[in-house]
Write a structure and sequence with these properties.
The complex is a heterodimer of chains A (247) and B (191). Chain A is mainly alpha-helical and 247 residues long. Chain A contains eleven helices and six strands. The two termini of chain A are 29 Å apart. Chain B has a two-stranded antiparallel ribbon. Classes of the chains: A mainly alpha (247), B alpha+beta (191). At the A-B interface, strand 3, helix 1, strand 4, helix 2 and helix 4 of A face helix 1, strand 2, strand 3, strand 6 and helix 6 of B.
Chain lengths: 247, 191
């Protein structure tokens, strides 16, 4: 790796080259704002496509999801700009997560889990006779919060299909940087194992009849419906949801 | 947040007092209170400061055409990176103690982003969609834990070091061997 430091008294972006690719590094907030505002010559799309390709989405589904523009008068979630489903899905997620009724409902689903799990008898640790529990703070927080997120999006059905989903997802999350940095699979065994496990469980989830999993987030049901409407099957639905859930 | 609170215990009762009206007994009756920046300014400051010190993500873009940023031409075909930690630990913005946990630096601040120097959720087209839910649910579970439990660090564990060396999409994990144990007891709220 070679590094050429172009930082001078004006603190311009500096450049370095790694594995044949030149990177410019922004160190000033005002320059970061310039990057944020540039929707013309700076793009994130290629990273997204590469990310889902690495996670296993096939080229046909990548095209259908990201590139195939849908009619403005399509059924389902409004599409006044005639965007592809990838853009529409982000808008749907905004609808779920930004301040409003759907956000409050989702947050109440988190609260259901917190109310249940943040009790002394629910903490999985070493119990002492003076009614205290000894536990790793890091693991305890990871445990209850991952489960809360799983219930918020997928209800109780996913945990019934796979009681280990939350734990495996936590491990996957810790290793997910290997996807972004495109570490060859031969060096990312633990990631691949976790990813395969999660994918299989999500596929079973989406293969479960919808009337048996009505206790889920609005986004989960609505996005699944939109994906099926353009012909995306269980395998790729599971891949896309794993990606969305992770990111 | 809990780790920083345990290592700055004077803040624990402050947060408990701020968030007390969210509860009746052990029950959460007003969850939205924890996200009210005016009613819970200390909790808000702790949230901002924790993310400032713990974020490891970067914004990244492909450069499709030669582009001028900061007066410098960035060449087509390259990548541009905005590592959040470089902005978050900028001493010209945050002072000589930028690397230290000092949530008071954000008390009374009108804009939490401090001129764009606080960006744990990225920006532009890739601004994190989940930032509102993340803030509310994390503040809520911290409030619930502090309301229902007394926590104490077991042994003489010092502030754990984060794993700065492993890239991440959000918050850094702990370096190997830095996990620590806590004793959790039901809190006597009559105290």
């Amino acid at each position: 790796m070679t590094r050429r430091n172009a930082v001078g008294s004006n603190k311009q972006p500096f450049a370095f080259t790694a594995l044949g690719t030149r990177f410019y590094v922004i160190t000033q907030a005002k320059h970061a704002t310039e990057v944020d505002k540039n929707m013309d010559t700076l793009s994130f799309d290629e990273f997204v496509h590469e990310f889902v390709r690495t996670v296993g989405l096939n080229e046909t589904s990548i095209h259908a999801f990201f590139l195939q523009k849908l009619p403005r008068d399509k059924a389902g979630f409004p599409n006044p700009s005639g965007d592809a489903l990838g853009t529409i899905t982000r808008q749907m997620h905004v609808h779920q997560l930004h301040p409003g009724e759907y956000q409050r409902i989702l947050e109440s689903r988190f609260l259901n889990s917190f109310n249940r799990d943040l009790r002394l008898e629910r903490i999985n640790g070493l119990q002492h006779s003076n009614k205290t529990i000894e536990v790793s703070l890091y693991r305890w927080c990871a445990n209850f919060f991952t489960r809360a997120g799983e219930y918020a999006y997928f209800g109780p059905v996913l945990a019934r299909i796979d009681p280990d989903f939350a734990d495996v997802f936590y491990a996957f999350d810790e290793l997910s940087w290997q996807i972004t940095y495109q570490i060859p699979k031969i060096f990312a065994n633990r990631l691949v194992t976790a990813q395969t496990h999660l994918h299989q469980s999500l596929k079973k989830y989406f293969q479960t009849p919808s009337e048996q999993r009505t206790d889920q987030a609005w986004f989960t049901a609505a996005a699944e419906q939109e994906l099926r409407s353009i012909g995306i099957g269980d395998d790729d639905i599971a891949t896309l949801f794993l990606t969305i859930y992770l990111t | 947040m809990l780790t920083y609170l345990l290592h700055n215990p004077s803040l624990i009762d402050i947060v408990r007092k701020e968030t007390s009206k969210a509860f009746s007994g052990d029950d959460v009756i007003n969850p939205r209170l924890v996200s009210d920046h005016d009613l819970c300014p200390q909790l808000e400051a702790i949230w901002i400061e924790t993310l400032r010190l713990s974020s490891t993500g970067s914004s990244v873009r492909c450069i499709k055409e030669d582009t001028t940023i900061g007066g410098k031409v960035l060449r087509k075909g390259s990548r541009v990176l905005i590592p959040f930690r470089l902005l978050h630990l900028n001493t010209s913005v945050y002072g000589a103690d930028a690397a230290l946990f000092r949530p008071a630096r954000f008390l009374g601040k009108e804009h939490r982003t401090t001129g764009g120097n606080w960006r744990p959720f990225g920006g532009g087209k890739t601004l994190c969609t989940g930032r509102y839910v993340a803030e509310h649910t994390i503040k809520l579970c911290v409030a619930i834990i502090l309301h229902r439990f007394d926590l104490s660090i077991i042994g003489n564990a010092s502030l754990p070091r984060g794993d700065e060396g492993t890239p991440g999409l959000g918050i850094m994990g702990l370096r190997k061997g830095e996990e620590f144990l806590v004793s959790v007891a039901a809190r006597d709220k009559d105290e």
